């Protein structure tokens, strides 16, 4: 018991240390250190008091989705999935963790970012890092040679927050893949059509889809004089052109990657080119590039791809709506007292008819609070019961926004609500 | 290089050892041991060969969902979510792992089933074990006092497969909870109405929802003479009445839990009682029970609950059953469990025991369970602020099993896509026209497919429709293109009609409502 009293005294003192540091705006590390000591002391108390020690936070790099965020998320998924389905895709799901060996050796340097599960005496497991390796495992396991599938699920990466501020460690990936042997470029074109449709429907403003081909890049590097063993590393330097100016990219190629200035300049001429099908045709006329087997194959396919993209056209669509977190159509309310039974009866009738309805969990709520609930959550209609209305066999149906009211015969209420909340 | 050749030789030999064991049907442990040696040898090869070593299995206790299973899953979720939304519920999502300390001390003995993440230098983490503790954490973290929320997500438990055959370690839970201080029993009644609606719409046959109340149980034990400290343990014995006969339950109470036969018999009289509002009224007349404060409060609320259930028109399937005891410690008031009436064949009931609602002792056929738990959120709040909660967990894995079984035995095909029409051609060199028409259909919101082949045979196009259940095929041909029409064929009946290009979208919509 004395130990307990001592502990409680120590906890009190340590609590003051923490409070003082916080008010002095000490560094986060210092505060965290003292808080950790405090929690340790509290944990030592054990028993019931131990249970009340609660760290109220989500794990680093993860977050909850509140109802508003879920409503937005549902809308985005709905648009995307509807597009995938329109193109005849199926969906699969895989477990959140795989055998560690399944993920080993697939991600190169990024492997250090994989979350492992503790060895608790069974198989060694890791959380999935992406959806592509599980997809490959699924195809091989089930001996599948042809499938058009989408998969929307969370993946896990132990990103270092100091390096990549704001990056989550648990985040959604939304993959669409076509597996199988087919005539060239048709499935490739459909993938681009799908991206185009999705970005249009999401109404995010103007966008561009850049296309290129690994074979064209490799061929281009070859004709410019890049040594074979430097292909991959020069590739990642060229990739930085979306973030850095050509001068800096050239500097990196010459100073860090050891290319001669001539070679870098030749690369520079090619990578500044943009266009459509015409560019592919022009490059097929380029004597050096067209002689390179890889580049030739890539450019021929690029021409073919653009011809299919021309056949696939899309139109813009726009929409905008208030973000609600529920889909309730009507609140069943009463202005007078002692009408709970009647409210519950009517609400049940509406539910049975498939109407999305709510009723306040109060025997005698004020009309004002019932209307406020509608305004706060965006419920468009309120069905108000009263003694007189019950005698007359009607329900007062009010439009929350306009405040217009009309008496609706009870038997017509369901249809009236459906009409007004299409 | 010599090393490599030696390794490859060793791999070849070890491969033969494994093959031999498998054909001799040796024990799994032996085979696994030799396979592991083989994989180790292969891994030593390193480089490219190392990469081709690919273990083709999912982790123990987990499974992929193939497209057919996903189609069933989507249908079930759609019915359930539609019901939740009809009742004005919002939804939230939480991370798959929590800080280890968040989950510590909340699950009693079951804590050993929690998956921990490896200590990789950061916070200690564990995979969520259910959706209720994350919910309580979410409420306390955001200082929320009132919410009606549903949450459908996977949870993780390291169940020992030898003990509980067929149980998955990763499985869905589907929770609906109403948190907040409200007038008594109205939200509790709405939870039951929701269970009723869902089970009806899922078309799983007849069902019953048993209700009881923790306070009535506790009061009943008190008046029967059960010592206070034995309440919880007698509770879990009574809970076994759905699986064991009364004689065996009584034996356990007397022989293992140390109750006197008299006390056991008194309990026996009560727990055999079932009824509706009438039973609650009768028990309120019971002199001993009505004197017990707990029991009196529970019975009064039970009466009130039934009066609301009558207004909600669900009393035909709800039974007040004094033997319902449910496993979890944190229930403080009404408890309930929904059970399907038809007997389920053994082949279906295996992963099925895995009802998201239960931790222990769920009867075969149980598909939902829940109750009121007023003290849980307070455990999470630093100031101990109480947020009363009532909720239900739908046993979604069990429902999946039943629906999958139904799909297998029914003649109706489960489609994995929703494609309305395949754009096809019987002649060659019409790829351009096919792609153009397909694009027009997509732009009009029609779900359409086209084969990735320049010159496919009509037969393979029709076969694709039959295999995947596409109901219509739009056939292009030179003559049709000149005439500005498209041949629209019903795949099942083979009836064909020429449709003007401009009317095609409407015609397809009409036929595939």
TrEMBL record, chain A:
Residues 4-41 form a coiled coil. SMART domains: WHEP-TRS. This is histidine--tRNA ligase. Residues 3-59 form the WHEP-TRS domain. GO terms for biological process: histidyl-tRNA aminoacylation; mitochondrial translation. PANTHER family: HISTIDINE--TRNA LIGASE, HISTIDYL-TRNA SYNTHETASE. One of its GO terms (cellular component) is cytosol. It holds the Pfam family tRNA-synt_His. It catalyses: tRNA(His) + L-histidine + ATP = L-histidyl-tRNA(His) + AMP + diphosphate + H(+). Residues 61-422 form the Aminoacyl-transfer RNA synthetases class-II family profile domain. GO terms for molecular function: ATP binding; histidine-tRNA ligase activity; identical protein binding; RNA binding. Belongs to the class-II aminoacyl-tRNA synthetase family. It comes from Cyprinus carpio carpio.
TrEMBL record, chain B:
It holds the Pfam family WHEP-TRS. Its EC number is 6.1.1.21. InterPro entries: aa-tRNA-synth_II, Anticodon-bd, His-tRNA-ligase, HisRS-like_core, HisRS/HisZ, HisRS_anticodon, WHEP-TRS_dom. Residues 3-59 form the WHEP-TRS domain. Residues 4-41 form a coiled coil. The keyword Repressor does not apply. GO terms for cellular component: cytosol; mitochondrion. Keywords: Aminoacyl-tRNA synthetase, ATP-binding, Coiled coil, Ligase, Nucleotide-binding, Protein biosynthesis. Residues 61-403 form the Aminoacyl-transfer RNA synthetases class-II family profile domain. GO terms for biological process: histidyl-tRNA aminoacylation; mitochondrial translation. GO terms for molecular function: ATP binding; histidine-tRNA ligase activity; identical protein binding; RNA binding. It catalyses: tRNA(His) + L-histidine + ATP = L-histidyl-tRNA(His) + AMP + diphosphate + H(+). The keyword Amino-acid biosynthesis does not apply. Belongs to the class-II aminoacyl-tRNA synthetase family. NCBIfam families: hisS. HAMAP family: His_tRNA_synth. This is histidine--tRNA ligase. It comes from Cyprinus carpio carpio.
């Amino acid at each position: 018991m004395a130990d307990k009293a001592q502990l409680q005294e120590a906890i009190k003192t340590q609590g003051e240390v923490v409070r003082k540091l916080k008010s002095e705006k000490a560094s986060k590390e210092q505060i965290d250190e003292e808080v950790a000591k405090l929690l340790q002391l509290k944990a030592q108390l054990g028993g019931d008091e131990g249970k009340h020690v609660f760290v109220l936070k989500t794990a680093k790099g993860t977050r909850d989705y509140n109802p508003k965020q879920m409503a937005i998320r549902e809308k985005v998924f709905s648009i995307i999935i509807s597009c995938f389905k329109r193109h005849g895709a199926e969906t699969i799901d895989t477990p959140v963790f795989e055998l560690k060996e399944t993920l080993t050796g697939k991600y190169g340097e990024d492997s250090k970012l994989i979350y492992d599960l503790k060895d608790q005496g069974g198989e060694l497991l890791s959380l999935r890092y992406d959806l592509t390796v599980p997809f490959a495992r699924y195809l091989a396991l089930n001996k599948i040679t042809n499938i058009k599938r989408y998969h929307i699920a969370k993946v896990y990466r132990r990103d270092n927050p100091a390096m990549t501020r704001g990056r989550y460690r648990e985040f959604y990936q939304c993959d669409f893949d076509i597996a199988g042997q087919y005539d060239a470029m048709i499935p490739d074109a459909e993938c681009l059509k799908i991206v185009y449709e999705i970005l249009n429907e999401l109404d995010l403003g103007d966008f561009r889809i850049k296309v290129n081909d690994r074979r064209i890049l490799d061929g281009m590097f070859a004709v410019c004089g890049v040594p074979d063993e430097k292909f991959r590393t020069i590739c990642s330097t060229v990739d930085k052109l979306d973030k850095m100016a050509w001068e800096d990219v050239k500097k990196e190629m010459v100073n860090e990657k050891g290319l001669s200035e001539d070679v870098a300049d030749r690369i520079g001429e090619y990578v500044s080119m943009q266009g459509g099908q015409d560019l592919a045709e022009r490059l097929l006329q380029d004597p050096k590039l067209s002689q390179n087997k890889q580049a030739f194959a890539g450019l021929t396919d690029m021409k073919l791809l653009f011809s299919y993209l021309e056949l696939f056209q899309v139109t813009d669509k726009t929409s905008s709506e208030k973000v609600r977190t529920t889909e309730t159509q009507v609140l069943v309310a009463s202005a007078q007292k002692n009408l709970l039974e009647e409210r519950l009866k009517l609400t049940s009738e509406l539910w049975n008819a498939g109407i999305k309805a709510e009723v306040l969990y109060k025997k005698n709520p004020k009309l004002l609070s019932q209307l406020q609930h509608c305004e706060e959550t965006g419920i468009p209609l309120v069905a108000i019961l009263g003694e007189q209305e019950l005698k007359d066999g009607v329900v007062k149906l009010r439009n929350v926004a306009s405040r217009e009211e009309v008496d609706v015969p009870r038997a017509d209420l369901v249809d009236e609500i459906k009409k007004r909340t299409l």
